Amino acid sequence: MGGAGQEVRFKPALTGRWKDSIGNSRHRDTPGMDRYALTKEVTDAEKIGWVKEIFSTVFPKYDFLNHVLSLRRDIAWRRFAVRKMRFFRTYRLIDVATGTGDLAIEAALFHPSIEVTGIDFVREMMELGQAKIVKKKLSGRIRLLQGDALYLPFGEGEFDAAAIAFGIRNIPDRMGALKEMARVVVPGGQVMVLEMTYPRRAILRSVYGVYLYRVLPSVARRFSRNPEAYRYLADSIVNFPSPEMFSEKMEEAGLVEIKRYALTLGVTYLHVGRKPQ
Fold first, then answer.
1. 8 A C-beta contact, residue 21 and residue 36
2. Nearest to residue 215, comparing CAs of 83, 69, 76, 84?
3. From CA 77, how far away is CA 70, in angstroms rounded?
4. Can you tell me whether residue 24 is helix, strand or coil?
5. What's the mean pLDDT in 179-197?
6. What digits encode the pLDDT tens for the residues 132-147?
Protein backbone atom coordinates (compact mmCIF):
# COMPACT_ATOMS: atom_id res chain seq x y z
CA MET A 1 0.00 0.00 0.00
CA GLY A 2 1.39 3.38 -0.95
CA GLY A 3 2.88 5.05 2.11
CA ALA A 4 1.54 2.38 4.45
CA GLY A 5 3.31 1.11 7.49
CA GLN A 6 5.50 4.08 8.31
CA GLU A 7 5.91 4.00 12.07
CA VAL A 8 6.19 7.31 13.90
CA ARG A 9 7.01 7.41 17.59
CA PHE A 10 5.08 9.85 19.78
CA LYS A 11 6.51 13.32 20.18
CA PRO A 12 4.90 16.01 22.36
CA ALA A 13 2.66 18.40 20.43
CA LEU A 14 3.65 22.03 20.05
CA THR A 15 1.99 24.77 22.06
CA GLY A 16 -0.66 27.24 20.96
CA ARG A 17 -4.00 25.46 21.04
CA TRP A 18 -7.35 26.96 20.27
CA LYS A 19 -10.95 25.80 20.02
CA ASP A 20 -12.57 25.24 16.67
CA SER A 21 -16.23 25.95 16.01
CA ILE A 22 -17.39 22.55 17.28
CA GLY A 23 -15.38 22.82 20.47
CA ASN A 24 -12.54 20.47 19.61
CA SER A 25 -9.08 21.36 20.87
CA ARG A 26 -7.01 22.33 17.85
CA HIS A 27 -3.50 23.48 17.15
CA ARG A 28 -2.68 26.75 15.44
CA ASP A 29 -0.39 25.08 12.94
CA THR A 30 -3.08 22.66 11.74
CA PRO A 31 -3.09 23.11 7.96
CA GLY A 32 -6.18 24.33 6.21
CA MET A 33 -8.20 25.39 9.23
CA ASP A 34 -8.45 28.98 8.04
CA ARG A 35 -10.04 27.73 4.85
CA TYR A 36 -12.17 24.80 5.92
CA ALA A 37 -13.16 25.34 9.58
CA LEU A 38 -16.77 24.51 10.42
CA THR A 39 -19.02 27.53 10.56
CA LYS A 40 -21.82 26.44 12.88
CA GLU A 41 -21.17 26.16 16.61
CA VAL A 42 -23.09 23.28 18.20
CA THR A 43 -23.23 21.62 21.60
CA ASP A 44 -22.02 18.07 22.16
CA ALA A 45 -25.61 16.87 22.53
CA GLU A 46 -26.59 18.55 19.27
CA LYS A 47 -23.63 17.03 17.49
CA ILE A 48 -24.42 13.54 18.78
CA GLY A 49 -28.02 13.86 17.61
CA TRP A 50 -26.87 15.21 14.27
CA VAL A 51 -24.38 12.38 13.77
CA LYS A 52 -26.98 9.76 14.63
CA GLU A 53 -29.46 11.32 12.20
CA ILE A 54 -26.85 11.47 9.44
CA PHE A 55 -25.85 7.83 9.76
CA SER A 56 -29.46 6.72 10.09
CA THR A 57 -30.01 8.43 6.74
CA VAL A 58 -26.93 7.33 4.80
CA PHE A 59 -26.66 3.76 6.12
CA PRO A 60 -27.78 2.12 2.84
CA LYS A 61 -24.79 3.76 1.14
CA TYR A 62 -22.38 3.69 4.09
CA ASP A 63 -19.91 1.18 2.67
CA PHE A 64 -19.96 3.01 -0.66
CA LEU A 65 -19.41 6.27 1.23
CA ASN A 66 -16.31 4.92 2.96
CA HIS A 67 -14.91 3.75 -0.36
CA VAL A 68 -15.52 7.18 -1.91
CA LEU A 69 -14.03 9.11 1.03
CA SER A 70 -10.91 6.93 1.01
CA LEU A 71 -10.56 6.31 -2.74
CA ARG A 72 -11.16 2.64 -1.83
CA ARG A 73 -8.12 2.55 0.45
CA ASP A 74 -10.28 1.90 3.54
CA ILE A 75 -10.19 -1.85 2.89
CA ALA A 76 -6.38 -1.95 2.93
CA TRP A 77 -6.25 0.36 5.97
CA ARG A 78 -8.46 -1.99 8.00
CA ARG A 79 -6.35 -4.97 7.00
CA PHE A 80 -3.22 -3.14 8.13
CA ALA A 81 -4.84 -2.39 11.51
CA VAL A 82 -6.00 -5.98 11.97
CA ARG A 83 -2.47 -7.26 11.38
CA LYS A 84 -1.22 -5.05 14.22
CA MET A 85 -3.65 -6.58 16.72
CA ARG A 86 -2.25 -8.86 19.42
CA PHE A 87 -4.27 -11.39 21.43
CA PHE A 88 -2.77 -13.09 24.45
CA ARG A 89 -5.24 -13.52 27.32
CA THR A 90 -8.96 -13.17 26.61
CA TYR A 91 -8.75 -13.54 22.81
CA ARG A 92 -11.56 -11.03 22.56
CA LEU A 93 -11.79 -7.77 20.58
CA ILE A 94 -14.27 -4.94 21.00
CA ASP A 95 -14.94 -2.90 17.86
CA VAL A 96 -16.32 0.46 18.99
CA ALA A 97 -18.53 2.40 16.55
CA THR A 98 -18.58 -0.76 14.46
CA GLY A 99 -20.96 0.66 11.85
CA THR A 100 -21.66 -2.10 9.34
CA GLY A 101 -19.06 -4.37 10.94
CA ASP A 102 -16.22 -4.21 8.42
CA LEU A 103 -13.41 -4.07 11.00
CA ALA A 104 -15.02 -6.77 13.14
CA ILE A 105 -15.35 -9.06 10.12
CA GLU A 106 -11.80 -8.41 8.94
CA ALA A 107 -10.43 -9.14 12.42
CA ALA A 108 -12.40 -12.37 12.78
CA LEU A 109 -11.24 -13.60 9.38
CA PHE A 110 -7.57 -12.83 10.04
CA HIS A 111 -7.52 -14.05 13.67
CA PRO A 112 -9.53 -17.31 13.63
CA SER A 113 -9.18 -17.91 17.38
CA ILE A 114 -10.79 -14.66 18.59
CA GLU A 115 -14.31 -13.53 19.41
CA VAL A 116 -15.44 -10.03 18.45
CA THR A 117 -18.03 -7.71 19.94
CA GLY A 118 -19.13 -4.75 17.85
CA ILE A 119 -21.00 -1.83 19.39
CA ASP A 120 -22.70 1.13 17.71
CA PHE A 121 -25.56 3.49 18.51
CA VAL A 122 -27.17 3.40 15.05
CA ARG A 123 -29.42 0.36 14.80
CA GLU A 124 -29.83 0.58 11.02
CA MET A 125 -26.07 0.35 10.51
CA MET A 126 -25.81 -2.77 12.65
CA GLU A 127 -28.66 -4.45 10.79
CA LEU A 128 -26.62 -4.16 7.62
CA GLY A 129 -23.59 -5.41 9.52
CA GLN A 130 -25.47 -8.43 10.85
CA ALA A 131 -26.46 -9.43 7.32
CA LYS A 132 -22.80 -9.27 6.27
CA ILE A 133 -21.76 -11.35 9.29
CA VAL A 134 -24.32 -14.03 8.43
CA LYS A 135 -23.16 -14.06 4.82
CA LYS A 136 -19.55 -14.59 5.97
CA LYS A 137 -20.74 -17.38 8.34
CA LEU A 138 -19.27 -15.58 11.36
CA SER A 139 -22.40 -15.39 13.52
CA GLY A 140 -20.85 -17.69 16.11
CA ARG A 141 -17.83 -15.42 16.61
CA ILE A 142 -19.13 -11.87 16.12
CA ARG A 143 -21.98 -10.29 18.03
CA LEU A 144 -23.30 -6.76 17.60
CA LEU A 145 -24.77 -4.63 20.38
CA GLN A 146 -26.45 -1.24 20.29
CA GLY A 147 -24.73 1.05 22.76
CA ASP A 148 -22.72 4.16 23.55
CA ALA A 149 -18.94 4.43 23.12
CA LEU A 150 -18.81 6.48 26.33
CA TYR A 151 -20.59 3.81 28.40
CA LEU A 152 -19.42 0.40 27.21
CA PRO A 153 -21.53 -2.31 28.92
CA PHE A 154 -18.56 -4.37 30.10
CA GLY A 155 -16.36 -4.70 33.13
CA GLU A 156 -12.68 -3.85 33.34
CA GLY A 157 -10.23 -6.03 31.45
CA GLU A 158 -12.66 -8.08 29.37
CA PHE A 159 -10.83 -7.68 26.04
CA ASP A 160 -7.28 -7.97 24.75
CA ALA A 161 -7.86 -5.10 22.32
CA ALA A 162 -10.30 -2.26 21.73
CA ALA A 163 -10.43 -0.68 18.29
CA ILE A 164 -12.36 2.06 16.53
CA ALA A 165 -12.18 2.69 12.78
CA PHE A 166 -13.35 5.96 11.21
CA GLY A 167 -15.59 6.65 14.19
CA ILE A 168 -13.81 8.66 16.84
CA ARG A 169 -13.97 11.90 14.86
CA ASN A 170 -17.77 11.68 15.27
CA ILE A 171 -17.55 11.46 19.08
CA PRO A 172 -17.43 14.90 20.77
CA ASP A 173 -15.91 13.51 24.01
CA ARG A 174 -12.94 11.75 22.45
CA MET A 175 -11.06 11.63 25.74
CA GLY A 176 -14.00 9.87 27.36
CA ALA A 177 -14.11 7.33 24.55
CA LEU A 178 -10.37 6.63 24.81
CA LYS A 179 -10.58 6.17 28.58
CA GLU A 180 -13.55 3.85 28.23
CA MET A 181 -11.75 1.73 25.63
CA ALA A 182 -8.73 1.56 27.94
CA ARG A 183 -10.94 0.53 30.85
CA VAL A 184 -12.31 -2.58 29.15
CA VAL A 185 -8.96 -3.97 27.94
CA VAL A 186 -6.60 -6.07 30.03
CA PRO A 187 -3.34 -4.59 31.37
CA GLY A 188 -0.95 -4.65 28.44
CA GLY A 189 -3.87 -4.65 26.00
CA GLN A 190 -4.16 -2.44 22.95
CA VAL A 191 -6.29 0.59 22.21
CA MET A 192 -6.29 1.22 18.45
CA VAL A 193 -7.70 4.17 16.53
CA LEU A 194 -7.84 4.15 12.72
CA GLU A 195 -8.86 7.55 11.42
CA MET A 196 -8.69 9.73 8.34
CA THR A 197 -7.06 13.12 8.74
CA TYR A 198 -6.09 16.14 6.69
CA PRO A 199 -2.65 15.61 5.05
CA ARG A 200 0.23 17.75 6.26
CA ARG A 201 1.99 18.23 2.92
CA ALA A 202 0.84 21.36 1.10
CA ILE A 203 0.27 19.73 -2.27
CA LEU A 204 -1.70 16.87 -0.72
CA ARG A 205 -3.77 19.32 1.33
CA SER A 206 -4.74 21.18 -1.82
CA VAL A 207 -5.63 18.06 -3.77
CA TYR A 208 -7.52 16.44 -0.90
CA GLY A 209 -9.37 19.68 -0.12
CA VAL A 210 -10.61 19.89 -3.71
CA TYR A 211 -11.62 16.23 -3.58
CA LEU A 212 -13.54 16.59 -0.30
CA TYR A 213 -15.32 19.84 -1.10
CA ARG A 214 -15.74 19.73 -4.89
CA VAL A 215 -15.67 16.13 -6.13
CA LEU A 216 -17.36 14.49 -3.15
CA PRO A 217 -20.46 16.78 -3.17
CA SER A 218 -20.96 16.00 -6.85
CA VAL A 219 -20.92 12.29 -6.06
CA ALA A 220 -23.26 12.85 -3.11
CA ARG A 221 -25.87 14.60 -5.22
CA ARG A 222 -26.00 11.57 -7.51
CA PHE A 223 -26.07 8.77 -4.94
CA SER A 224 -27.34 10.09 -1.60
CA ARG A 225 -30.68 11.27 -0.27
CA ASN A 226 -28.74 13.49 2.12
CA PRO A 227 -25.85 15.26 0.34
CA GLU A 228 -25.26 17.44 3.43
CA ALA A 229 -24.07 14.31 5.21
CA TYR A 230 -21.07 14.25 2.91
CA ARG A 231 -20.31 17.87 3.76
CA TYR A 232 -20.36 16.97 7.45
CA LEU A 233 -18.06 13.98 6.90
CA ALA A 234 -15.63 16.12 4.91
CA ASP A 235 -15.65 18.74 7.68
CA SER A 236 -15.09 16.06 10.32
CA ILE A 237 -11.95 14.88 8.52
CA VAL A 238 -10.51 18.36 8.07
CA ASN A 239 -11.24 19.35 11.67
CA PHE A 240 -9.81 16.20 13.25
CA PRO A 241 -6.74 16.82 15.45
CA SER A 242 -3.31 16.48 13.91
CA PRO A 243 -1.55 13.12 14.42
CA GLU A 244 0.76 14.72 16.99
CA MET A 245 -2.15 16.14 18.97
CA PHE A 246 -4.03 12.86 18.91
CA SER A 247 -0.98 10.98 20.18
CA GLU A 248 -0.88 13.44 23.05
CA LYS A 249 -4.57 12.80 23.77
CA MET A 250 -3.93 9.07 23.95
CA GLU A 251 -1.16 9.68 26.46
CA GLU A 252 -3.48 11.92 28.51
CA ALA A 253 -6.00 9.06 28.51
CA GLY A 254 -3.43 6.96 30.38
CA LEU A 255 -2.06 4.91 27.50
CA VAL A 256 1.63 4.14 27.04
CA GLU A 257 4.00 3.00 24.26
CA ILE A 258 2.05 5.11 21.80
CA LYS A 259 2.85 4.59 18.15
CA ARG A 260 1.28 5.93 15.00
CA TYR A 261 1.49 4.64 11.46
CA ALA A 262 1.01 6.93 8.47
CA LEU A 263 -1.02 5.25 5.73
CA THR A 264 -1.31 6.35 2.11
CA LEU A 265 0.85 9.47 2.39
CA GLY A 266 -0.69 10.45 5.71
CA VAL A 267 -4.32 10.57 4.58
CA THR A 268 -5.06 8.12 7.38
CA TYR A 269 -3.24 7.20 10.60
CA LEU A 270 -3.37 4.12 12.75
CA HIS A 271 -2.76 5.10 16.38
CA VAL A 272 -1.86 2.30 18.82
CA GLY A 273 -1.44 2.60 22.58
CA ARG A 274 -1.19 0.11 25.42
CA LYS A 275 -2.84 -0.02 28.80
CA PRO A 276 -0.13 0.02 31.49
CA GLN A 277 0.67 -3.30 33.14
1. no
2. 69
3. 9
4. coil
5. 98
6. 999 999 999 999 999 9
* Helices assigned H by DSSP within 37-194: 44-58, 62-70, 74-83, 102-110, 123-135, 174-184
State pLDDT tens for residues 10-53.
333 322 332 333 334 333 333 333 333 444 556 666 667 667 66
113 domain residue, yes or no: yes
| Angstrom distances, CA of residue 62 to CA of 40, 129, 132 | 24, 11, 13
Residue 126: closest CA among 102, 152, 94, 108: 102
CATH of the domain at 76: 3.40.50.150
Q: 255-276 pLDDT, tens per residue?
A: 999 999 999 999 999 999 999 9
Domain that residue 96 falls in: 16-274
The pTM (predicted TM-score) of the whole model is 0.80
Number of domains in the chain: 1
Give phi and psi for 165, each to the nearest 5: -120, 120
Q: Please give the average per-residue pLDDT across 54-64, as a whole number.
A: 67
DSSP H or E segment with residue 163: strand 159-165
Within-domain flag for 4: no
DSSP state of 151: B
Q: Are 267 and 73 in contact (CB under 8 A)?
A: yes
Bridge partners, residue 254, by sequence: none
Asked whether residue 127 is domain-assigned, the answer is yes
Give a yes or no: residue 1 inside a domain.
Answer: no
